[in-house]
Amino acid sequence: MKKIYLGFCLFLAFLLVLQGFSVLVHADVIIPTPSVDGVDLDALYISGAKKASTAGTVNVFGAGGTDNSSPAVYGGDGWNLTLETGGVLAGGAYGIDLGDGSTVTVNGAVSGRADTVTGSPTYNDQYSATGIYAADNSRITNAGSISAAAVTDTGATIYATGVYVEGNGTITNSGNISATSTAINPTGGSNAGVFGAYLDSGSFTNSGTISAAATSSATDAAAYTDSA
Fold first, then answer.
1. What is the mean pLDDT of residues 4-30?
2. Domain of 78?
3. Residue 22, pLDDT score
């Protein structure tokens, strides 16, 4: 009887450890690690609902390849992604990059960064950074923190956008969204632009904080807190 009880206790302990170390859960898929370098949701998908969640840490390299936007989480159309409280997605140029008809719920922290000074990943050679990007007919709900930062010293134009949703989208923010872009060039040829949140068309609701700041050695740096 004692052996059975001891075995049961050990089994429960194993489940608790596994749960504590699980980063991303999708259907039957559990990745038992406290931190992974990039998650490609499409590569994990087997069948059923395209639903994923994480309360762990996902770093940039691996998802979508390191030669493009290098998001922490990448997926095609129709994904439903939830970042639980305490979860962290730290991407390269994009924190999250999802296709048409996707849903993202953020209770943790998402960040994207493109930096030519330190060599962080850039996108399309424009040195742009986006916290969350989602294509048409997508919905983003933020109760946590979403940020994007872009820095360049090459003389190129640089952009940062906290949240970017294409046409017929929905952005609902009760948390914090921020974006900063900094262009550095002694010759005065670099430009910076930034959006806190950008929605091509659709519904935009904000009861939280959205901020945008652009700094450039040229004269045409521009900052927009939101666009809908």
1. 44
2. 2-224
3. 47
